[in-house]
Amino acid sequence: MAIIDVSIVPIGTETPSVSAYVANIHKVLEKYNGEVKYQLTPMNTIIEGDLPLLLQVVQEMHEVPFENGISRVATTIRIDDRRDKKSTMEGKLASVQAKLDQN
């Protein structure tokens, strides 16, 4: 199971706001509900699942601004692919919280 942190930035929009683009990109994730887990944050989106599927999903997400008239898109991805044990978004947060609780 992999976790990907993805940020997709449309370049050359008419306004500084990109929330409409984010909302359209988010619709791609909704198509994969049940196959991948995802969490929208104020600065990026985190998705969890099998790496080949996640990469397919990221590619689809990357295409959305182009489909909406943007000519340039900057996409940044960071992949956490741990294979020695199961790693989940919740598990990573719980591990940090447990250490905070020890203090």
From TrEMBL:
It comes from the Bacteria. GO terms for cellular component: cytosol. Residues 5-97 form the Thiamine-binding protein domain. It holds the Pfam family Thiamine_BP. Belongs to the UPF0045 family. This is Thiamine-binding protein domain-containing protein. It comes from Gottfriedia solisilvae.
